[in-house]
Each structure stands twice: as C-alpha cells, then as structure tokens.
Amino acid sequence: MSSPDPMPVPMVATFPHPGRQLEQAYRELDLALNGTDEQRKALGTLRTLPRPWDPDSLARVQLRRELWDWLEAFTIWLNTEYVWDVVGVVPYCWPQHPHLVRELAVLADQRRRAALALGSDALEEWHRYALPAFIDRMRQRVKNHCDDGHQQWPVKGRHSHHLSEPATTARAQAFAQDVAAHQTRPAASQESAGPWLRVVDGQTIDSGTGEIVDC
User: Fold this and answer.
1) Reduced to 3 states, what is the DSSP secondary structure of residue 118?
2) 10 Å Cβ neighbour count for 167?
3) Which residues contact 154 (CB under 8 A, 6 or more apart)?
C-alpha cells in the first residue's frame, strides 16, 4: 500500500496583512494624500491621523493592539522568508528593544506599500536598501547580547549617570550660561552701523537695499 502524498507546501509564505483598524488608518492616510478637499476636510485635523509606521501616533488601544499583532506576524514572516544566517535573525525579545520596535514598524510599512505598487521598483528598493540596512543596524546594536536570553540594557549604567543630579545640574548650568551670554551681547542695529556701501561702475550702491546712493 502506497503512502499518502504529503501535503503541498507553498514556496513562499504570504505577507501578513494589517488588522481592520490598521487598514482603516491606512485608508484615511491615503485620502489625506490623494482625496478631494471634501474628503480631507471630513478627516479632521490631518496631523493627528494615526500613522502605523510611528507607534507614538497610535493613541487608540485597539489600534496599538493590532499594530503589535501585525509586527509580531511580520517579524515571524521576515525571519522565515528572508533570514538564512543566524546573525540576521530578529531576536524573539524584539518588543523589549525600543529601537527594533520603531524600525520594524517602518520596515513593515514600507514592505506593505511596495506590495501595493503597480511595478516592481518599490519592492526592489526594499530588497536592495531597506532590508539590508535594517539588518546591518540590528547587528550593530544588538550584536550577540540576546543570544542566550534577553539581556539588560548595556548602557543602563551610563544612562543612569546621565540622569543623575550632578550631571543634570552641570548641563543646566551650561544652558543658563549660554543664554546669559547671548542676553548681554550688544545687538548691532542697522542704524548705528550705517549703510554698507560699495562702488560699482562708478556708482555708489547700498548693499542692503541695492539702491544707488547719492553721496
């Protein structure tokens, strides 16, 4: 008796799609960019529209929840479809790395936009520049700190020193001295300095106004 045929496996996995509210946020951004004046007016204040590539702009709880779910699916997809060498793997603890959270949001957004383009140029740009640049930056920042489990922030000690009272006071004094120096500096007025004159082709020209001056 012959064994049953194995289940067919696709050669590539499908790019994960954002959730419903994220898709709505993208539709609103598209209207803000390409819609009519009436459509843009209906959106309200455009600068407050949620921008999924910038997590800071997402105030609604459900929208943020969908973003994290999408980035989790995107990270799994990215590691599966594009990473062969272990040094390029996005670490499992990426939510504990703010720099990775922010970069993955941008990388996912650019990949989504490239897939919607009517030509392959945008996707080629993503392959050639966006993805390799992200992996290089991740290698430089994470290195092998989280190979055996998430590690504490390596610069935590220096950051604590930065926030310490002596360091904070020293910076505040430097700021105050700079402001005081500019407050006491005499401001040269145009009237006291007089017009700047030069001779061009036998005529005296006011360099400030460009007018011919009768000396």
Assistant:
1) coil
2) 12
3) 145
- Model's pTM, two decimal places? 0.74
CA distance 38 to 41: 5
Tens digits of per-residue pLDDT, 69-110?
999 999 999 999 999 888 889 999 999 999 999 999 999 999
C-alpha 212/C-alpha 200 separation (Å) is 10
Q: Which long-range contacts (CB under 8 A, 24 or more apart) does 181-188 make?
A: none
Residue 90, judged by CB atoms within 10 A of its CB (0-12, 13-18, 19+), counts as: buried
Amino acid at 72: E
Q: Which helix (H) or strand (E) holds 204?
A: strand 203-206
β-bridge mates for residue 200, sequence order: 203
